[in-house]
Amino acid sequence: MKDIDVILHSEYIIDGQRMEATPAQMLSECMPADNPPLPEKNGYPPIVDEPSDPAPGYVRYSPDKIKGYLSALGDAPHMKRDIPVEYSGPLTRLAIARTLLETLWKEGHFSLENIEARIRWEWDCTPVGNMAALYFSAEAAGKYLYDLGIRLSGYSITESSEGNRIYMDRLEVRKDSLFTAAVAEDPEPVIEDGCRDAAEDYPEYTGSEQDISMKRKCPETLVADNRSWIIYIPFDTCPFKLGGSMLAERFGSNGDNAPEIQDPDYFIDCYEVLRELVEDGVVISGITVSGGGLASAAGFLCRRTGCTIDVKGLENAYREKDIVRILFAEVPGVLIQIRDSDYDYVDAQLLLQEIAYYPLGHPDTGKCGIEISEGGRPDVFSILEALLNSPTASEGED
């Protein structure tokens, strides 16, 4: 069993290359400024390991088996997941994104930058490749959290013989954020800089509002409204990939890479707009796209009310011909339901922040579950494509 201090504070040499920072140094970037500084040197020997590469793939997923895949994944959106060592970096970012997305649906008034959390690893440190994977996981977590502006209240690593998992828990709204928000609404009493402790005398500035509520602002199953819209919003612009997905875990890998979410600024923009829509009651139901991908999330959202999911707009926008990738890749995002009367408002809010969204269809209260379509409804992309590719179109023609 490795000493936890050794794991956190040792230098790492991976595949013959000495890493620039220890796990503790990388994670400390997300800690409060008044956190005690880390020691510059220690007497621990370096940890030497080599990375694990994805196994060559051979499985082919068939569009004809989509219903079978969906049925086999079951309650995928809510299942706990192990992190395969060969995808530890990308899947760490995905795990963080999914945890943060779950806060979208909660009651209360807060934004992404107000959230503080603790991150912890349960890791099997024995097999070759696992220490390298832990390092890449800590590296991905530190950079992604820092870029998102999420502050850590702490971090920990414990050894486990039951696989590798990462958790973000103890999610709270930072007390200093609450204080600032309260003063903005009610500037009395006036408290001088450096005397913030005096706010403890005023309950309206502190206390029970610190924890993020466990109650949802909106349900995670469709409201029975046949005119409402179901809209998909991915929170990253990366391509759909199946590596490390629940589909690959259940049916075997085809050698695909995992989704590489690398655009924290876009995630922040998406979060802030969606958070406002949820708080204002514009979103009448919603679910996080996570384990099992878009198909599993849609299946869970529509488990009491049916819907035909039209993915033609997604195929055209991403130029992706593999519908299985679109449906089961685990790019973080959300499915939301909005009233038809709110569509133009939501469209304006999303376009204002240059956020891509994809209307998938309407609920069907006469059915239960989802059907998949690849072109039942013409959209802007297909109309433009038809006009541009028309052999009869001439320059200047209306």
List the helices and strands and how they pair.
Blueprint: H1 4-9, E1 12-14, E2 17-18, H2 23-28, E3 47-49, H3 66-73, H4 88-102, E4 115-123, H5 130-148, E5 151-159, E6 165-173, H6 175-185, E7 229-234, H7 246-251, H8 264-279, E8 283-289, H9 293-301, E9 306-310, H10 312-318, H11 323-328, E10 333-338, H12 343-352, E11 358-361, E12 363-364, E13 370-373, H13 380-389
Parallel strand pairs: 1-3, 4-5, 9-13
Antiparallel strand pairs: 1-2, 4-6, 7-10, 7-11, 8-10, 9-12
Helix pairs in contact: 4-5
Given helix and strand content, the structural type is alpha/beta
> What number is the mean pLDDT?
84
**Percent of residues in helices:** 25-40%
Strand residue percentage: 15-25%
Order of helices and strands: HEEHEHHEHEEHEHHEHEHHEHEEEH
How is the main sheet built? Answer: 4 strands, antiparallel
Could you tell me the radius of gyration in angstroms?
A: 23 Å
- How many runs of DSSP E, i.e. beta strands? 13
Helical segment tally? 13
Order of strands across the main sheet: 8-10-7-11
The dominant shape is: globular
Report the span from N to C terminus. 74 Å
Low-confidence stretches: 178-184, 186-209, 377-398
